[in-house]
Amino acid sequence: MSYKYETKYNSPNFTKGSDALKVFGYKRKIDGFCLHHWGDPKAKPSYEGVRNYLSRSNGNTSAHLVVTGTGRRVSVIVNYNDVAWHSGNAWGNARTIGIELDPRGRESDKDVFAEVLADLRSAFGDKPLYMHSHFSNTQCPGVYKKLLSDLDKRSYQKISGNKFGQVTNKKTPAPVIPPKPKAVPKKVSPTTKKVDGTPQPDTGVAVVHKIDYKEENNVKEKIMKSVPKPSKVSKDQWVQVLKAGLYVGVSAVLAFFISVVTENPDLFGTLTPVVNVVLVTVKKVFSEV
Predict the structure, then answer these.
(1) What are the CA-CA distances from residue 196 to residues 81, 176, 192, 204, 209 (Å)?
(2) Of 56, 58, 87, 125, which residue has the fewest beta carbons closer than 10 angstroms?
(3) What is the chain's pLDDT, residue by residue, as a tens digit (289 residues)?
(4) What domains sit in the chain, N to C, each tagged with a CATH number?
Protein backbone atom coordinates (compact mmCIF):
# COMPACT_ATOMS: atom_id res chain seq x y z
CA MET A 1 0.00 0.00 0.00
CA SER A 2 0.94 3.69 0.08
CA TYR A 3 -0.59 7.04 0.90
CA LYS A 4 -0.86 10.50 -0.68
CA TYR A 5 1.65 12.83 0.98
CA GLU A 6 0.46 16.46 0.63
CA THR A 7 2.85 19.35 1.28
CA LYS A 8 1.03 22.32 -0.26
CA TYR A 9 -0.76 23.32 2.95
CA ASN A 10 1.17 25.32 5.54
CA SER A 11 0.20 26.44 9.03
CA PRO A 12 1.54 29.76 10.37
CA ASN A 13 1.07 28.51 13.91
CA PHE A 14 4.51 27.20 14.91
CA THR A 15 7.83 28.19 16.52
CA LYS A 16 11.01 28.03 14.53
CA GLY A 17 13.30 25.25 15.59
CA SER A 18 16.13 27.70 16.21
CA ASP A 19 13.95 29.48 18.82
CA ALA A 20 12.85 26.30 20.67
CA LEU A 21 15.39 26.60 23.49
CA LYS A 22 14.47 30.25 24.11
CA VAL A 23 10.69 29.64 23.98
CA PHE A 24 10.32 26.16 25.54
CA GLY A 25 13.57 25.67 27.41
CA TYR A 26 14.53 22.70 25.19
CA LYS A 27 16.35 22.50 21.91
CA ARG A 28 14.35 21.19 18.97
CA LYS A 29 15.05 17.48 18.83
CA ILE A 30 12.78 14.63 17.76
CA ASP A 31 12.54 12.08 20.56
CA GLY A 32 9.05 10.70 19.90
CA PHE A 33 5.70 10.94 18.11
CA CYS A 34 2.61 12.33 19.85
CA LEU A 35 -0.86 11.07 18.84
CA HIS A 36 -4.01 13.21 18.71
CA HIS A 37 -7.51 12.80 17.31
CA TRP A 38 -9.81 15.37 15.76
CA GLY A 39 -12.41 15.24 18.52
CA ASP A 40 -15.77 13.52 18.85
CA PRO A 41 -16.52 11.49 15.68
CA LYS A 42 -20.23 12.16 16.24
CA ALA A 43 -19.54 15.75 15.24
CA LYS A 44 -18.40 14.35 11.88
CA PRO A 45 -15.20 16.38 11.57
CA SER A 46 -13.54 16.20 8.17
CA TYR A 47 -9.96 15.87 7.08
CA GLU A 48 -10.11 19.10 5.11
CA GLY A 49 -11.87 20.95 7.92
CA VAL A 50 -9.26 19.98 10.54
CA ARG A 51 -6.37 20.69 8.19
CA ASN A 52 -7.74 24.14 7.40
CA TYR A 53 -8.53 24.89 11.06
CA LEU A 54 -4.96 24.12 12.17
CA SER A 55 -3.68 26.25 9.29
CA ARG A 56 -5.77 29.31 10.15
CA SER A 57 -4.16 32.69 10.71
CA ASN A 58 -3.45 33.80 14.26
CA GLY A 59 -4.32 30.38 15.63
CA ASN A 60 -2.96 28.95 18.89
CA THR A 61 -2.85 25.27 17.97
CA SER A 62 -1.34 23.21 15.18
CA ALA A 63 0.26 19.85 14.38
CA HIS A 64 2.85 18.56 12.00
CA LEU A 65 0.58 16.00 10.28
CA VAL A 66 -3.11 15.41 9.62
CA VAL A 67 -3.94 11.78 8.70
CA THR A 68 -7.04 9.98 7.39
CA GLY A 69 -7.80 6.59 5.84
CA THR A 70 -10.32 8.20 3.52
CA GLY A 71 -8.43 8.39 0.25
CA ARG A 72 -5.30 7.46 2.25
CA ARG A 73 -4.26 11.13 2.59
CA VAL A 74 -1.66 12.81 4.80
CA SER A 75 -1.00 16.59 5.00
CA VAL A 76 2.21 17.94 6.48
CA ILE A 77 1.38 21.48 7.59
CA VAL A 78 4.39 22.27 9.85
CA ASN A 79 7.99 21.49 8.97
CA TYR A 80 9.49 18.71 11.13
CA ASN A 81 12.43 20.93 12.09
CA ASP A 82 10.05 23.48 13.59
CA VAL A 83 7.89 23.23 16.72
CA ALA A 84 4.13 22.72 16.29
CA TRP A 85 1.79 23.77 19.12
CA HIS A 86 0.02 20.50 19.89
CA SER A 87 0.81 18.89 23.28
CA GLY A 88 0.22 21.68 25.81
CA ASN A 89 3.65 20.83 27.27
CA ALA A 90 7.02 22.47 26.67
CA TRP A 91 8.99 19.21 26.35
CA GLY A 92 6.19 17.55 24.35
CA ASN A 93 6.17 20.41 21.81
CA ALA A 94 9.94 20.78 21.54
CA ARG A 95 10.79 17.09 21.39
CA THR A 96 7.95 15.33 19.50
CA ILE A 97 6.13 15.37 16.17
CA GLY A 98 2.39 16.04 16.55
CA ILE A 99 0.06 13.80 14.48
CA GLU A 100 -3.71 14.36 14.16
CA LEU A 101 -5.60 11.12 13.40
CA ASP A 102 -9.12 10.48 12.06
CA PRO A 103 -11.20 9.92 15.25
CA ARG A 104 -13.21 7.04 13.77
CA GLY A 105 -10.26 4.66 14.06
CA ARG A 106 -11.24 2.55 11.07
CA GLU A 107 -9.00 -0.16 9.68
CA SER A 108 -7.95 2.16 6.87
CA ASP A 109 -7.09 4.89 9.43
CA LYS A 110 -4.90 2.51 11.43
CA ASP A 111 -3.19 1.13 8.34
CA VAL A 112 -2.33 4.57 6.93
CA PHE A 113 -0.98 5.74 10.26
CA ALA A 114 1.19 2.56 10.50
CA GLU A 115 2.71 3.54 7.15
CA VAL A 116 3.25 7.14 8.30
CA LEU A 117 4.92 5.90 11.49
CA ALA A 118 7.18 3.58 9.45
CA ASP A 119 8.27 6.56 7.33
CA LEU A 120 8.88 8.75 10.39
CA ARG A 121 10.93 6.07 12.11
CA SER A 122 12.92 5.57 8.94
CA ALA A 123 13.68 9.31 8.84
CA PHE A 124 14.19 10.08 12.56
CA GLY A 125 14.93 6.74 14.23
CA ASP A 126 12.94 4.16 16.16
CA LYS A 127 11.34 6.60 18.57
CA PRO A 128 8.41 5.82 20.94
CA LEU A 129 4.75 6.75 20.65
CA TYR A 130 3.15 9.15 23.14
CA MET A 131 -0.51 9.96 23.70
CA HIS A 132 -1.63 13.58 24.04
CA SER A 133 -3.00 12.63 27.48
CA HIS A 134 0.57 11.82 28.53
CA PHE A 135 1.32 15.55 28.48
CA SER A 136 -2.08 17.13 29.26
CA ASN A 137 -5.26 16.27 31.13
CA THR A 138 -7.38 15.31 28.12
CA GLN A 139 -9.26 12.37 26.55
CA CYS A 140 -7.22 12.80 23.39
CA PRO A 141 -6.40 10.64 21.40
CA GLY A 142 -9.80 8.99 22.00
CA VAL A 143 -10.13 5.44 20.56
CA TYR A 144 -6.39 5.32 19.91
CA LYS A 145 -5.64 5.12 23.62
CA LYS A 146 -6.36 1.38 23.52
CA LEU A 147 -4.66 0.90 20.15
CA LEU A 148 -1.22 2.25 20.96
CA SER A 149 0.43 -1.17 21.15
CA ASP A 150 -1.36 -2.39 18.01
CA LEU A 151 -0.36 0.69 16.02
CA ASP A 152 3.22 0.30 17.19
CA LYS A 153 3.36 -3.34 16.01
CA ARG A 154 1.71 -2.51 12.69
CA SER A 155 4.42 -0.02 11.82
CA TYR A 156 7.05 -2.74 11.99
CA GLN A 157 5.17 -4.68 9.33
CA LYS A 158 5.71 -1.84 6.86
CA ILE A 159 8.69 -1.07 4.67
CA SER A 160 9.50 2.61 4.13
CA GLY A 161 10.44 3.72 0.63
CA ASN A 162 12.75 6.45 -0.65
CA LYS A 163 10.08 9.12 -0.18
CA PHE A 164 7.24 9.73 2.27
CA GLY A 165 4.18 7.80 1.15
CA GLN A 166 6.07 5.08 -0.72
CA VAL A 167 5.45 2.33 1.81
CA THR A 168 4.98 -1.38 1.18
CA ASN A 169 3.92 -4.25 3.37
CA LYS A 170 6.44 -6.82 4.51
CA LYS A 171 5.83 -10.10 2.79
CA THR A 172 5.03 -12.90 5.16
CA PRO A 173 7.05 -15.91 4.05
CA ALA A 174 4.97 -18.88 3.08
CA PRO A 175 5.16 -21.68 5.63
CA VAL A 176 7.71 -24.26 4.69
CA ILE A 177 6.06 -27.64 4.36
CA PRO A 178 8.59 -30.39 4.89
CA PRO A 179 8.60 -33.01 2.13
CA LYS A 180 7.03 -36.34 2.89
CA PRO A 181 9.63 -38.94 3.70
CA LYS A 182 10.21 -41.36 0.88
CA ALA A 183 9.13 -44.93 1.49
CA VAL A 184 12.13 -47.17 1.95
CA PRO A 185 11.73 -50.27 -0.24
CA LYS A 186 12.07 -53.56 1.55
CA LYS A 187 15.33 -55.27 0.79
CA VAL A 188 14.68 -58.71 -0.68
CA SER A 189 17.49 -61.21 -1.11
CA PRO A 190 17.90 -62.38 -4.73
CA THR A 191 18.12 -65.99 -3.56
CA THR A 192 15.22 -67.75 -1.92
CA LYS A 193 14.61 -71.09 -0.37
CA LYS A 194 11.39 -72.96 0.16
CA VAL A 195 9.99 -73.72 3.56
CA ASP A 196 6.88 -75.85 3.64
CA GLY A 197 6.58 -75.23 -0.09
CA THR A 198 6.57 -71.43 0.27
CA PRO A 199 9.49 -69.33 -1.11
CA GLN A 200 11.26 -67.49 1.73
CA PRO A 201 13.94 -64.76 1.54
CA ASP A 202 17.39 -66.06 2.25
CA THR A 203 18.22 -63.91 5.26
CA GLY A 204 21.04 -66.07 6.52
CA VAL A 205 18.98 -67.00 9.56
CA ALA A 206 17.77 -70.54 10.12
CA VAL A 207 14.06 -70.87 9.44
CA VAL A 208 12.06 -73.09 11.74
CA HIS A 209 9.34 -74.93 9.87
CA LYS A 210 6.52 -77.22 10.86
CA ILE A 211 7.35 -80.87 11.52
CA ASP A 212 5.16 -83.51 9.90
CA TYR A 213 5.66 -86.44 12.25
CA LYS A 214 3.88 -88.90 9.92
CA GLU A 215 6.21 -88.01 7.09
CA GLU A 216 9.20 -88.20 9.43
CA ASN A 217 8.25 -91.81 10.44
CA ASN A 218 7.95 -92.82 6.79
CA VAL A 219 11.45 -91.49 6.15
CA LYS A 220 12.80 -93.47 9.09
CA GLU A 221 11.21 -96.69 7.79
CA LYS A 222 12.74 -96.18 4.36
CA ILE A 223 16.18 -95.65 5.91
CA MET A 224 15.91 -98.81 8.04
CA LYS A 225 14.86 -100.92 5.03
CA SER A 226 17.83 -99.68 3.03
CA VAL A 227 20.32 -100.90 5.71
CA PRO A 228 21.29 -104.61 5.02
CA LYS A 229 20.54 -107.01 7.86
CA PRO A 230 23.55 -108.89 9.33
CA SER A 231 23.77 -112.53 8.12
CA LYS A 232 23.71 -115.43 10.62
CA VAL A 233 27.05 -117.29 11.42
CA SER A 234 26.96 -120.97 10.33
CA LYS A 235 28.33 -123.92 12.33
CA ASP A 236 31.21 -124.41 9.91
CA GLN A 237 32.18 -120.75 10.27
CA TRP A 238 32.33 -121.13 14.05
CA VAL A 239 34.61 -124.25 13.64
CA GLN A 240 36.93 -122.22 11.40
CA VAL A 241 37.12 -119.42 13.94
CA LEU A 242 37.95 -121.84 16.77
CA LYS A 243 40.65 -123.55 14.70
CA ALA A 244 42.25 -120.20 13.91
CA GLY A 245 42.27 -119.36 17.57
CA LEU A 246 43.77 -122.70 18.43
CA TYR A 247 46.58 -122.26 15.90
CA VAL A 248 47.40 -118.83 17.31
CA GLY A 249 47.42 -120.19 20.87
CA VAL A 250 49.65 -123.15 20.01
CA SER A 251 51.98 -120.87 18.03
CA ALA A 252 52.33 -118.58 21.02
CA VAL A 253 53.11 -121.49 23.39
CA LEU A 254 55.77 -123.00 21.06
CA ALA A 255 57.38 -119.59 20.49
CA PHE A 256 57.49 -118.97 24.24
CA PHE A 257 59.06 -122.40 24.84
CA ILE A 258 61.78 -121.81 22.24
CA SER A 259 62.61 -118.33 23.68
CA VAL A 260 63.00 -119.88 27.17
CA VAL A 261 65.22 -122.72 25.95
CA THR A 262 67.44 -120.37 23.97
CA GLU A 263 67.33 -117.77 26.78
CA ASN A 264 66.43 -115.14 24.21
CA PRO A 265 63.05 -113.42 25.08
CA ASP A 266 63.12 -111.32 21.91
CA LEU A 267 62.41 -114.48 19.85
CA PHE A 268 58.89 -114.71 21.31
CA GLY A 269 57.53 -111.84 19.28
CA THR A 270 59.31 -112.91 16.12
CA LEU A 271 58.61 -116.67 16.27
CA THR A 272 54.91 -116.52 17.15
CA PRO A 273 53.63 -115.60 13.64
CA VAL A 274 56.28 -117.85 12.01
CA VAL A 275 55.19 -120.86 14.04
CA ASN A 276 51.58 -120.08 13.24
CA VAL A 277 52.30 -120.08 9.49
CA VAL A 278 54.22 -123.33 9.78
CA LEU A 279 51.39 -125.04 11.65
CA VAL A 280 48.82 -123.91 9.07
CA THR A 281 51.00 -125.10 6.23
CA VAL A 282 51.62 -128.50 7.80
CA LYS A 283 47.90 -128.91 8.48
CA LYS A 284 47.03 -128.06 4.88
CA VAL A 285 49.63 -130.50 3.51
CA PHE A 286 48.39 -133.42 5.60
CA SER A 287 44.71 -132.66 4.88
CA GLU A 288 45.32 -132.92 1.14
CA VAL A 289 47.16 -136.35 1.42
Answers:
(1) 97, 52, 13, 17, 7
(2) 58
(3) 789 999 999 999 999 999 999 999 999 999 999 999 998 888 889 999 999 999 999 999 999 999 999 999 999 999 999 999 999 999 999 999 999 999 999 999 999 999 999 999 999 999 999 999 999 999 999 999 999 999 999 999 999 888 888 888 876 665 666 677 776 666 655 555 555 555 555 544 444 444 454 555 565 566 566 656 656 656 776 667 676 667 667 666 666 666 666 666 665 566 666 665 666 665 665 555 5
(4) 4-169 (3.40.80.10), 241-288 (no CATH)
